[in-house]
Each structure stands twice: as structure tokens, then as C-alpha cells.
Amino acid sequence: TFSARRARKRQPQQDDDGHLLPPSPPALPVLGHLHLMGSLPHVSLHRLARKHGSDLMLLRLGAMPVLVVSSPRAAEAVLRTHDLVCASRPHSLVTEIVMYGPSDVGFVPYGDYWRRVRKLVTTHLLTVKRVQALRLAREEEVSAVMARISEAAAAGAAVDVGELLGSFANDLACRAVMGKSFRGEGRNKLFRELVSDTSPLLAGFNVEEFFPFLSRFGVLSRMVRAKSERLRRRWDEQLDRLIEDHESSGAAAAASTSSKDDDDDFIDVLLSVRQEYGLTREHMKAMLLDVFFGGIGTGASVLEFTVAELMLNHDVMKNLQAEIRSVVPKGQVAVSEDNLRGMVYLRAVIKESLRLHPPTTLLTAHFTMASFSVDGFTVPAGVRVLVNAWAIATDARFWENPEAFVPERFLDGGSAEGVGFRGTDFQFLPFGSGRRMCPGMNFGVASVELMLANLVHGFDWELPPGKVARDIDMSEVFGLVVHRKEKLLLLPRRL
Ligand code: HEM
């Protein structure tokens, strides 16, 4: 584009071999572009890209080179055309300690081990069949939430929507991981606390990551290390106990003979394939951590933002309630998964929410294993790649009326008809695309759909007295998952 050419002219940067590097705005010594990162990096990076008219920027955050990707075309270049070269993950001290190496799926660099465990996850753990088999678990966990809301409705009390949906996502993940039998021992709450204590460290954007030399010697890194080790000990205590309980309950033996039943919990599954995949105890613990970190915050964030948008967009709420109430037979208390089939408006609402509020605004950082060229620029090896999925999905160049919450855009005849989140439409990447794309998409979407349908089917929702829709603050807090800053307190009214 013209503006990209102008930016290139302004800041022609070359590597040692004379290759043209992607444009880079002026940087400070030592800090590089770090001072330009605000509390919401996806917003700061978007502004920077617009200001410099550049959908591919090579920044320097401290000592760390970062490629920022801000258009569907550039995203396709790194996630499809050069997917293999960009399929690694950067090293971090925190994941090395907390994620056992790392030896999970999400944070481990590209290589044989990642290929093996990724295959395990997609062929045994997060398969369509297993997601279907968790249907009863989802329906029961949804009913538990509905019972809590009913109590509040009967008492005329407001509910804290984020707290409620956070505990739903947590309980569902616990149920998938450890099965039903461990409920009621307070373990779910313990895991929730552990996830919330660990998430800030895993979020990236830790200072010691920008200055690796500090991480080797500095006080800062000793603090991060000590904190990470304390957390890992807490995780160890819980996960070791769970795995040992499963081993001694004989479930493992049963599972290996019945060859991975679909209703086994995730620990049973991992125990049953541990030999085939050469898994150590640490590998298994790391993979379970991925379920906690991949599955809880994301689902809770999508649900809470969606409810907030529905409160802001009364017509959309009415349309959604009308669709659901017309499908679910009168007298049926809960929406079942069978009822969800054919609910096109519900799907469009969730898509629209994922467009405006993708929980991982910058995907998870990728890392280049070799240099490659794109649009006449050379991207070096050893660069972090941040795909600004949020910026791309809210950019007026690619979306009509991008700021507005309009699910109709995804329906037949709408401006985004046919656009989906399965990683082939590069203007819409809430789950990423390519080799590192989210393997938990079906799991996540199934729980969001069922919970949302029940929330709006069973109740009408109102703001507490004295509040109006424009009082709903949509501010975000950045982290491993972006979440709402303000609590969303709403009054449920039983129909
Ligand atoms: C609405 C819910 C969810 C959203 C929006 C979401 C989004 C994402 C995104 C954007 C990525 C990074 C893709 C990339 O790096 O290019 C990712 C990776 C991942 N997600 Fe999800 N996710 C969700 C639910 C889940 C669930 C429920 C699980 C597991 C139970 C899960 C497990 C993972 C794992 C293991 C990875 C790492 C994959 C890899 O590096 O190979 N996610 N997710």
C-alpha cells in the first residue's frame, strides 16, 4: 500500500546482509519500543500500526524483537504461507518452571515433542466425540448455575455475572480433567485459586522476558523464579494427588483395557496412553495445566462480555430470546444440547462477541525458527510474532460498521455471511489458525453456547435500580486472557 511504502521510506532498516526489514517506528535506546506499550498492548499496538500505516512492524521491546501483524493478509502470511517457520513459541522462565519444561502443548517450542503431544490432544483428549461425551457434564454444570440464579431471583438479589460464569467454566474444566467423583472436596475452588494466582505470571509481558540478560543474573529474575517455583509446588501437590488417586482407583487399568472410553476423564485418558506416547508424570501434569489455562478464562470471558453486550443491545437480546424460546418446548425448564441445533442467531451472537472481544487479543506469541520474506521484507529468525487478532477483527478496512455489535452481519445476506472462526477467514481469528490453532475450540464453543442459551432462556435480565445501559463499563484488563475490568451485576427475573 501507499502508506506502507511511505513508512518503508521513512525507516529503511536492513539486516547485516542488506535485506530490507519490516518498518519500525523510532525507538529509544535500551527500551526500544517498550515505552509505547500501555496497559492494553493490543490497543497500543493497533494505534502504532495505524499511525505508521504499517500492517507488518518490527518492534524492539527491550532486547526482544517483535513482529506485529495487523491485517488479514499479513496474518495469512505468518499463519498459513509461513506457518511452519512461525510455529514455535518463545522461551520464558515462567513457563519453563510452571509448565514443567515447558512440556505442555501451548507453550512448548515447535519440535518432535510438540508434534507428539499435539497429536495426542487432537486424537484423544479434545476430539469431537469426547466433547460430545461431556454433554451430560455440561448440562449438569449449567443446571447448577441456573439453580444459583433462581435463588437470587427468588430473593430479588443481583448476581455477579463474572463470578458465576467463572465458577461455571472452572467447574466444567475440573469435571473434564478429574471426573465427577472429586466434587465436593473443595478441590474445584482450590484449582480456581491456583489458576487465578498463576495467570498473571503466564500472561507474558514480564519485564525479565524483554531483558534476557537480567533473567540470567538479576534480582528481578530471582523473584520471578521464586514465585514460579512456589506456584509449581502448589500445582504439584494437587495434580500429583489427583493422578495418584486415579492410578490407585484402578481407572487406569480399566481404561487401558477398554481402550480409551469416550466418557473417561482427561486423567484417565492420559494414563491410558502414557506408554504409547512416552509420557512422564511431568508431561501429564503440564498437559492438564493447558486445560486449566486454555479452557477456564477464555470461556468465562466470552460469556461475560456477551452478556454485557446483550444488556447494551436490547434488540439483540430480544431477538436471541425469541429464537431460543421458539425452539424450546413450553414447559421445558432447561435448554438441552439437542435444542441448540439450528439456532443460527445464537451462533451469530457468539461470533459477534468473539469478534469484538476475542479473549486472547494477540493470540499466543509465535516465534520464528528461520528467516522468511513477506511483501519484500525479510523477517529474521528468533523474532516473536504477535498477531493482533483484536485489531484485525475491528478494522473498518475489513468490516462494515466495525464498532457496533451486529450479529446479523453473520447471517444470510449479511456483510460477513459465511465468515467463520475455523481459521480460514483471516479477518476473524479468535482461535488462531494453522498448526498452533486452538485445539479446544469445540470444547469451548459447546460450553459457551449451552450456558448462554440457558441464561437468556430462563430469565429476563435487568440492571440494578438506578443504573442504565450506558453505565455498563466495557473496559478491559489485559492478561493471558483479556477480561472485564468492572463487575457486571445484574438482576435476574424468572419468567
Ligand atoms: C472460547 C474459548 C477459547 C478461545 C477463544 C481460545 C483461543 C485460543 C487461541 C487464540 C490460541 C492460540 C492460537 C495461536 O497461537 O495461534 C489457543 C491455543 C490453545 N488453546 Fe484455546 N481457546 C479457547 C478454549 C480452549 C479450551 C477449552 C482448551 C482446552 C480444553 C484450549 C486449549 C488450547 C491449547 C492447548 C492451545 C495451544 C495450542 C498449541 O500451541 O499447539 N483452548 N486458544
Task: Characterise the protein shown here.
This protein is of the alpha+beta class. The chain has one domain (2-494): Cytochrome p450. It has helices at residues 2-10, 41-51, 72-81, 93-98, 112-125, 128-133, 135-155, 161-178, 187-202, 207-210, 212-217, 219-248, 251-257, 266-273, 281-312, 314-327, 337-340, 344-356, 389-393, 441-458; strands spanning 56-61, 64-69, 159-160, 366-367, 372-374, 377-379, 384-387, 459-462, 476-477, 483-484, 489-494. A four-stranded mixed beta sheet has the order 1-2-7-4. A three-stranded antiparallel beta sheet has the order 3-11-8. Strands 5-6 form a two-stranded antiparallel sheet. α7 (135-155) runs parallel beside α20, α8 packs across α9 (187-202) and α15 crosses α18 (344-356). The chain is globular and about 75 Å long. The model is unreliable at 1-9 (pLDDT under 50). The structure holds protoporphyrin IX containing FE. It comes from Dichanthelium oligosanthes. Belongs to the cytochrome P450 family.
